[in-house]
Amino acid sequence: MTTLMTKRVGTLLAAEATYGVPPDVGDYAALLCNEGVDVTVSGEKIERTVVTPTFSPVPNAVGTKSIQISPAVELRGGGLSEAGALLAPDWEPLFLGCSMKKREVVRLDVEGITGTFEVDEVVTGGGSAATGTVYHIDGDTLVLTGVTGEFTAAETVTGGTSTATASVAAAHEAFEYRPATLSPADQSSASMRFFKDSHLWVLKGLRGTWALDCANGKIPTLSFTMTGLYGDPSDSVLPSPMFTGLIGPVFMGAGLAIGSYTPVLESFKLDLGGDVQQRKDANHPEGMREVYVGGRTPKGSIDPEADSLANFNVWNLWKNSTPGKLACTIGATAGNRWRIEVPKATYEDPKYADKSGLVKYDLSYTATNGGAGDDEFRITLF
């Protein structure tokens, strides 16, 4: 008899090039999960209505099958390579499998701005001659795409259309993640080799949704709910992979702002709210051809302390359906810091609550269209 132990668990992850086709074993990398990750199998129970001479039930059958796994991970980056290049987090294939898109950008922190920079214009560095197109503007940061060359600190950048100028304080290579509206054929998917001690599950065609939970003094967590195509487990040998040594940054000193107001608060949450659907198919051996994301409703919550209405009137924001920006920065180390922006949060019914004898709000919000579509939020690693 072989005895299996609960806490002997291993998780390897890879992006799929073709939906539902697991990559080669060598293409998987270790995924460091929080405690409690496990698989859940689901099958449609087929009740048989045959008639027999006795009251004894007859065996059921199992129809369409799927498998689900819900790993939670720290919101950590991938760090920097030996050459100083930004590396993706180990959980990125799961993130992209939630109908998310990744874009490589440069975050250009500027100061001494004259004029107004415009989205889609080209900016040029006066000393470096580096160029880039303004993708969007985050306060005093120009977020650029299509960058050629390297911007340098203290040089002057000029907008090609607006002729606005500014001095560069710092330039950061960054990966920006946004939600995407994609047909099933264009959605990314992931494959996972999950070891429950010596039981190996190869989870393929994984797509799903995620929720981010940031609490004061704790490492923020990303909780995934991923669904994939069923496959039987097999006996194997639990590997000893090399996990990341990075620790996610702690949610403190985040500078979280509600519009232009900086509250006292303990919690910030954002839930993708992905609508995960199953594409059933009688021609498939397990009755299901594909899992896909059919929509999303990103929502979240914050818990700011109440202030005078002159300083912060949440009731007016709610009553007038006034969208406002939520933004914070978590961490301070290159390759392991995060910028989270919700450009247009629309608030739902506010509620008073108690915080150790102080009045606070339980404030829920929906992340709404920022103007260009697929822009309800931005999560950036830099």
Keyphrases for this structure?
six-stranded antiparallel barrel; mainly beta; Pnp Oxidase, Chain A; 3% helix; two-stranded antiparallel sheet; globular; 2 helices; 382 residues
Describe this structure in words.
The chain is mostly beta strands and 382 residues long. The protein has 3 domains: 158 residues, Pnp Oxidase, Chain A, CATH 2.30.110; 78 residues; 86 residues, no CATH class. The strands form 2 sheets. The chain has a 6-stranded antiparallel β-barrel with strand order 6-9-8-7-10-11. A two-stranded antiparallel sheet has the order 18-19. Strand 21 and strand 22 form a beta hairpin. The termini are far apart. The model has no long low-confidence stretch (mean pLDDT 96).
Task: Give a topology summary.
Layout: E1 9-15, E2 29-30, E3 39-46, E4 61-69, E5 72-74, H1 92-96, E6 100-114, E7 122-125, E8 131-138, E9 141-148, E10 156-159, E11 165-179, E12 190-196, E13 199-215, E14 221-229, E15 234-235, E16 257-258, E17 267-271, E18 274-280, E19 288-296, E20 299-302, H2 314-319, E21 324-330, E22 338-347, E23 351-355, E24 358-367, E25 378-381
Antiparallel strand pairs: 1-2, 1-12, 3-4, 4-14, 5-14, 6-9, 6-11, 7-8, 7-10, 8-9, 10-11, 11-25, 12-13, 13-14, 13-15, 13-17, 16-21, 17-20, 18-19, 20-24, 21-22, 22-24, 22-25, 23-24
